[in-house]
Amino acid sequence: MNAHAAASRLWRWKSRLARNPVLYGAYAVFTRRLLPESALVRIPFGPARGMRWRLRRGDAPWMALGVYEPAVSACLERILRPADVFFDVGAHAGYFSLVASRCVGPTGRVVAFEPAPANAERILEHVELNGLEGVVRVERAAVCDGPGTATFVLTDRDANCHLARWGADSARRRPGDRLEVACTTLDAAVRTHGTPRCVKVDVEGAELAVLQGAVGLLSARDDVHWLVSCHGVELQRQVEARLKQSGLLVRPVEGFEHMLHACRD
Fold it and tell me: pLDDT of 11-22, one tens digit each?
């Protein structure tokens, strides 16, 4: 069994476990003891193997193990080449930015967009820990349909922070959890950083807003690959329709069906 197959099997096991509250609670306690808060580890498996990672409460422990969402990592490894540009929209703690940095190499560029202050600081720490200052740039902004500012909601799980205008109503909030953040668009990012080979989008409900701010990039004839995580069945239908409207071929990512992969070939 190769590394990706093993990681995928572990991820499927975890997903099944999450459906049982009692077993998942026991799993959460075990992983917290196995991977203590603030510990600095080297990722032992997967495409980020050997990279350094700082553990924080609320992280998926699978990031520290290198087997987080293996289907997405496999897509990045297939798509990205040395010297490519990668946009990580909704980068959280930077796990996929690390994976992508290894794919594009020292002559490539990874741009991690993350408006949540604590998350952005974590990405910067991981960049410094792994000597990637020349490859990974952190943009402290939300990507949506236009420039300016917007209200951003900090949830009890850092991975589920979202723009208030589009985020899921079901997200639990803590007191004092709203702040104004800078906003940008993918078309503006292209003017600054160049055309990406791949754009990964995970923005907790604002997927259509991201696409609305990427009219130029979507209409370009460049071979751009899109990996869009969709939060809800109806939203996934709308995102798929918008991507197809731009002439892209769209299909679910095998093993991670709520993420769509779109490209021209």
Answer: 666 666 667 777
CATH code of 187's domain: 3.40.50.150
In this predicted model, what pLDDT tens digit does every residue of 72-104 receive, in sequence order? Answer: 999 999 999 999 999 999 999 999 999 999 999
Q: Which of 91, 93, 206, 92 is nearest to 150 (CA)?
A: 206
Q: pTM for the complete prediction? A: 0.88
Exposure string of 190-221, with b = 16+ CB inside 10 Å and e = fewer, is beebebbbbbbbbbbbbbbbbbbbbeebbeee
Question: Which run of H or E residues covers position 251?
Answer: strand 249-253
Kindly state whether residues 77 and 152 are assigned to the same domain. yes
CB atoms within 10 A of CB 41: 15
Do β-strands 249-253 and 256-263 pair in parallel, antiparallel, or remain unpaired?
A: antiparallel
- Containing structural domain, residue 117: 71-263
pLDDT digits (tens, 9 = 90+) for 47-57: 999 999 998 86
Domains of the chain: total: 2
Distance from C-alpha of 206 to C-alpha of 178, rounded to nearest angstrom? 17
